[in-house]
Write a structure and sequence with these properties.
There is one protein chain. This protein folds into two domains: about 300 residues, Zn peptidases (Aminopeptidase); about 120 residues, Alpha-Beta Plaits (2-Layer Sandwich). It is elongated, with a radius of gyration of 24 Å. A hairpin with a 7-residue loop joins strand 18 and strand 19. By secondary structure, it is an alpha+beta fold. The strands form four sheets. Strands 1, 2, 3, 6, 7, 8, 15, 16 and 17 form a nine-stranded mixed beta sheet that branches. It is about 40% helix and about 25% strand. The longest helix is centred in the C-terminal third of the chain and has 23 residues. The structure holds zinc ion.
Length: about 425
């Protein structure tokens, strides 16, 4: 954790001065390594297969997009993906206890395991129309880019490696993970990096969002709560004077927003807070029996995330205590329900996986963009395990909206880049 904090502070400086995005050098040894690997006959043949597979890759994208995969409802799509991985060929394909789909492709030594992941779930409820529509060459459907395109890239990388007969030194583990979005709270990847997973992953590569060139090496952590305020409830006139959960909630919001604003105004790594939903109550002339709100807090710096979290808990508790001792009848109780916990961290740009991702991007004459975000990579990054999130390529937009679209503009290039990073990280067996 300490090492990550130091990296986080150093790299935050780099990011805020701007040259992290544009001027972070790719070390020569990695540029040379990537040039050599990219030109290897077997890799060139895998690239040619990726081009050849394009019509199939598009067909797979439409097929998977049209299987709904709401949070906690990914099973149908997971089963279809498992069948596709079996058909593509792997040493072992299975679905783990959390619902993640895994396909192992053994390396010659198998000392280490490099995972290539995309998430199965979308943000859309089960009843959403997920039929793919065509606007010229543009494909339009909820979830088509985030992250169904990523799933198809995982599949195509496996197919191309098999067809070309690429042999790696380390194992490759192809992953379709569950629960990346919203209240899923990274449950799939959390399970994979827990003691119960039965797999040991040494490097993690996710494909999630963004055009080619995305090299996400930072984990934007977040903490989310639903705060419940409960009381007896009663008639607005007849029971007047009874503790009112809405009134206590108002005080809690005021205390928290004031303290949190003071905290972020003092400077330091960007830290945000937002109350996104408020609810409760039955009618205008009833004292409600329940009031609730949801809060989201984010920071790149694990220490600041910890601090804003404790500011939140203290101010809400203080507000309820002050409200209850303000002369009201009876009491309002407070219950804090944790609904999201994603750790933060930032990996050094000198890490081989990050360098390889940057060098592979340059190999395809694209500019690497170092980014930070909230992805499956948060979990390995927070544990100090090399992790990167790469772009899904092509052109796209409208993620998390019903109008999400994706256009296959040089999409194959992003698949080749992903394959190159995987093979570089796993090592090409001689
Ligand atoms: Zn995503």
């Amino acid at each position: 954790m300490n090492k990550i904090t130091i990296c986080a502070l150093l790299s935050l400086f780099v990011l805020t001065t701007g040259w992290g995005q544009n001027g972070t050098e790719t070390l020569k040894e990695y540029t040379r390594q990537m040039d050599k690997l990219g030109k290897a006959k077997v890799i060139q043949s895998a690239f040619a297969y990726i081009d050849e597979l394009e019509p199939r890759t598009t067909k797979d994208l439409i097929f998977l997009t049209e299987i709904p995969a709401p949070p906690f409802g990914e099973t149908k799509r997971a089963n279809a993906f498992r069948d596709m991985l079996v058909e593509a060929g792997a040493d072992r394909v299975w679905i783990d206890a959390e619902g993640n789909v895994l396909a192992l492709r053994k390396g010659t030594s198998g000392d280490k395991t490099i995972a290539l992941d995309a998430h199965i779930d979308t943000v859309f409820p089960i009843e959403t129309d997920v039929k793919v529509k065509f606007r010229g060459d543009t494909l339009v459907a909820p979830g088509i880019g985030d992250d169904t395109r990523g799933m198809v890239m995982v599949l195509t990388v496996l197919r191309a490696l098999n067809k070309a007969g690429v042999q790696t030194r380390d194992n490759l583990l192809f992953v379709g993970s569950v629960g990346e979005e919203g209240l899923g709270d990274l449950r799939g990847v959390k399970h994979l990096f827990s003691d119960q997973s039965g797999v040991k992953i040494d490097s993690w590569i996710s494909i999630d969002g963004g055009s080619i060139g995305r090299v996400n090496h930072g984990a934007l952590g977040s903490k989310r709560y639903r705060a419940h305020f409960k009381g007896k409830g009663g008639h607005s006139w007849g029971a007047f004077g009874l503790a009112n959960p809405h009134h206590a909630l108002g005080k809690a919001v005021e205390y928290f927003v004031q303290s949190a604003s003071d905290y972020v105004a003092k400077g330091g790594a960007k830290t945000s807070f937002n109350i996104g939903r408020i609810g409760g109550g039955t009618s205008v002339n009833s004292i409600p029996f329940e009031s609730w709100f949801e809060v989201d807090m984010r920071s790149l710096d694990p220490h600041r995330l910890y601090e804003i979290d404790s500011i939140f808990r203290k101010s809400v508790e203080q507000a309820v205590a002050d409200y209850n001792s303000s002369g009201v009848k009876d009491k309002v109780s407070l219950d804090l329900e944790k609904i999201g916990d994603r750790p933060s961290g930032l990996l050094s740009t000198e890490l081989p996986l990050i360098q390889r991702s940057m060098a592979a991007t340059q190999y395809f004459n694209e500019k690497p963009r170092l980014t930070t975000g909230s992805t499956n990579g948060n979990i390995p990054i927070s544990k100090g395990i090399p992790a990167v999130t790469l772009g899904r390529g092509g052109k796209g937009g409208g993620a998390h909206s019903l109008d999400e679209w994706w256009l296959n503009k040089d999409g194959a290039k992003a698949i080749k880049l992903t394959l190159l990073v995987c093979v570089a990280e796993a090592g090409l067996a001689k």
